[in-house]
Amino acid sequence: MKRSDAGRQEAAAVSAEPVTRVVAVVLPMVVMLALGLWRLDRGGMWRDEAATYQVARRSVPQIWHLLHHVDAVHGLYYLFMHLVLFPAPGEVALRLPSVVGATATTGLVAALGIRLGNPRVGLWAGLLYAVTPLAGHFAQEGRSYALVEAGATAATLLLVRALRGGRGWWVYGVTVAVTCLLHEFAVLLLLAHGATLALTRMPWRVWWRWGVAAGAAVLVLAPLALVSRRQSAQVAWLAVPNRESVDDLAHAFLGQAQLVFVPYLFLIALALWRPFARRGEVTLAAVAVPLLLVPPTVLIAVSRFRPLYDERYVLYALAGAPLLAAAGADRLTRRVSRLPGAAAPRLVTLAGVLAVSLALTVQFPLLREDRDPDRRPDNLAAVSAAAGRELRPGDAVLYMPSLARRSAVAYPAGFRAVRDVALKTSAIASGTLYGTEVGPRELRSRLDRLDRVWLICEPFVFRRNWHPDTSVATEETKRAVLAEDFTLRERIVRRGVTLRLYVRHRQNLSARHR
User: Fold this and answer.
1) Distance between CA atoms of 371 and 275, rounded to whole angstroms?
2) Contacts of 23 by beta carbon, 8 Å cutoff, 6+ apart
3) Are 214 and 193 in contact (CB under 8 A)?
4) CA within 20 to 30 Å of 83's CA: 117, 224, 268, 359, which one?
5) In this structure, how many other beta carbons lie within 10 angstroms of the beta carbon of residue 164?
6) Shortest CA distance to 348 belongs to which of 358, 357, 337?
């Protein structure tokens, strides 16, 4: 009778295992999906999202024309977004792919935790990822980074499967190649995967198979890398990373609040206690540690000589952090479970879920603030709305620098029937993001015929140390003519952008009408 009871219990446990695995993957995905959809239409795009929106709404030949001049690194993403926005363009549609990407990444993190640990590790890792403010931020960005992380995490899961089963290397290679085409800095993922092979001391035949797959992905990426190198002026704004950059990244990955950051760090330390097993065994630490550390470390090191670092370029490394923290929590609970009177495993799992809920509660104000459009560097919808209230039909408008034209490109309604004084060729016709402008002589001639002009400008253009990166002579002419011949009459400040009304000096105006 006892044997029969034991057999039934074992059979019940086996039958419950698939259900447990599904719950461990689906529950975190539901949480991420809910957070991603929450206030998705926040009422305005900022500059990077506006670039996606206006480029993706062009025709395929027009997008191809643009990529020869700028943003080649985002080419595949723009073509994908062209298909997404074609039926019903809008801000929600712009951000939905990122929500889907973040949700998929959450499920993939959970699946990695299950495969490298157990369903409890997968559940906790997936939930930790879902409630991380950085993940929530990029889940609502109309850019490629959430999709890149989904691709990178999928490639990591495929790597684990290939290392354990010996198959699927071509699928792994294709996934890495597509991910790198979405953003070329995802190629640093290959260094992390190479470190995993080194830590697990894989035999040479495994290195060979991985090398073929990785080499094929690099070959696919090579043409894009050559083209984007010629467009490197686009990242000239990046600064050399310092200790503060490292600290900011650590807190972005592990938690902005100390109440979250310190326990998170402690759990990772527990996971790293005797992290690596026998030769050829793929452990969670051997996968998650390189994923978390290698891409940011390499990019920061390179950026000490040539600035290329921004935390969004290594967002995909975030997946390693919740995996390690969940593994550390699992190790802690296993130690505690050996004590007399320890709680049942299901209660322990529930306690971990409640701990993640506490982390969500602590960080919820950050998630709520992130839904405010004024938390972004600028709000182009607000600029357009202000322009619509202040500008009259036929008013002359000057943009300084020329990229300030992005508010008019993204939200043209507020600038309808105004005259763009400096514009020579439109953005679409010139194959650029914001169009091309006339030279200094023609610009001065056009301004000489005006009695008043609106300036749409970035807040930094009147700083003494500001020097334009492109069209230097034209930008200097704008500043010089406004200073010499015009007087500031009105100023309206919106997040990241300023509207200034200039009228011609009285003596110059009198001279013109004699």
Assistant:
1) 38
2) 119, 123
3) yes
4) 224
5) 13
6) 337
Q: The tokens of 287 are what?
A: 């996968």
Look up residue 127 and give its amino acid: L
Q: Which residues pair with 457 in a beta bridge?
A: 400, 498
C-alpha 309/C-alpha 40 separation (Å) is 28
Two structure tokens written together for 101: 């990407």
What is the mean pLDDT of each successive set of 10 residues along the chain, which is 514 residues long? 45 60 96 97 92 97 96 97 96 97 98 96 98 98 98 98 91 98 97 96 96 98 94 89 96 96 96 77 95 98 96 98 97 78 74 95 95 89 91 94 92 93 95 94 94 91 77 88 93 84 75 52
Residue 473 to residue 481: CA distance in whole angstroms: 12
Contacts 24+ apart (CB under 8 A), 361-366: 362/255, 362/257, 362/259, 362/260, 363/131, 363/132, 363/133, 363/255, 363/256, 363/257, 363/260, 366/133, 366/256
Q: Give 470's contacts (C-beta < 8 A, 6+ positions apart).
A: 233, 401, 402
Residue with tokens 């005006």: 450
Q: How far is CA 398 from CA 407, 409, 463, in A?
A: 12, 14, 18
